[in-house]
Prior knowledge:
This protein is of the alpha/beta class. The chain has two domains: 8-181 and 373-389, Rossmann fold (3-Layer(aba) Sandwich), CATH 3.40.50; 191-371, Glycogen Phosphorylase B (Rossmann fold). The protein is built from 16 helices and twelve strands. The strands form two sheets. The protein has a six-stranded parallel β-sheet with strand order 3-2-1-4-5-6, sandwiched between helices. The chain has a six-stranded parallel β-sheet with strand order 9-8-7-10-11-12, with helices on both faces. Strand 11, helix 13 and strand 12 (331-334) form a beta-alpha-beta unit.
Amino acid sequence: MSEAGPENVLVRITTVPISLKKLIAGQMRFMSQQGFKVYMISSPYENIEELEAKELSEFLAVSMSRKISPFKDLIALFKLVRILRKLKPKIVHTHTPKAGFLGMVAARFAGIPVRLHTVAGLPLMETNGLKRKILEWVEKLTYSCAVMVYPNSGNLKQFIVESKFCRSSKLKVIGNGSSNGIDTAFFRSTTELLNTAAGLRKQYNIPENDFVYIFVGRLVRDKGIEELVTAFLEINSKHNNVWLLLVGPFEHELDPLSEVCGDQIEKNPQIIAVGYKDDIRPYLMMANTLVFPSYREGFPNVPLQAGCFDLPSIVTNINGCNEIIKDHKNGLIVPVKDSPALRAAMTLILTDESLYHILKSNARKMVVDRYEQRVMWNLILLEYQNHLKSN
């Protein structure tokens, strides 16, 4: 770990490195270019040099578990306090629940003046009993240690206020929501991507005019995969020209799919699970519509990314999703955990050509107008500057 220089030192902390690489990608580089000395802290990562070069920032590894693990969490907390006392940053900005808890508590202990936390989803929404009480306590402690908390959607802010996790004056939604905005220049159609998408269709034996539903994300229960597979199988029994493309990793430890659902994904020839992909753009380009039936989100990136490629989205009526998608304008909104309603929406978008083209024509414009990435980065920079002035 190098010694911090005279610059304004900024530390960004996430639980796992994929959040640095994907969820807030580019922010560290941008802040480095604005005069900050930036450090990234997350769990150990193999491709440190690549990430550091991309973000113009130094990476420091601290193991953090996404599960409730008091002993491991205590060790991580001590390590974070030691690092922060050495770096003496002006700002610590955390993202993701566990990193938020550990990072904000550590920053408080280390006497860091500007302690900021972004909330991009709350796992406690899908828990109950003792576990929920523990997670609620963790959120309250996290927010009490922060000087400002940034829910990344208006509905998430409302939930936090109603749950009395902290006073409303400590909460602020930046811009129109989102943690990172969307790089609309990167997520756009090009000849190269079109050719790659056409090649993928051939690789998976998908006829050119067949209709492809796509899901991008972790293949777990709380992303609505069980309902999605059930709905698709019923549609597929009546329409043989439909395909379901699943882009993302299975997670067998935290929230596994049922054995029945796993078997259906494996055995149905028109359900294609391609695993995690570093670049999802050609997969979005080979699809006709995004289906994202998640149970909970903060402010998901996937509907933004899909919209940039003119894809309508079918989403559940949850935080973030129902702010990005306007029903019957750039997509369709369905109730959570409702497979029949999901099937009806998927059927409608398949069979109503006029509606499909209306949704498609609005998709990219509604993303570009509201969520351009550079606008979001400059708003975050303004937050940093204002906090530094007041400290």
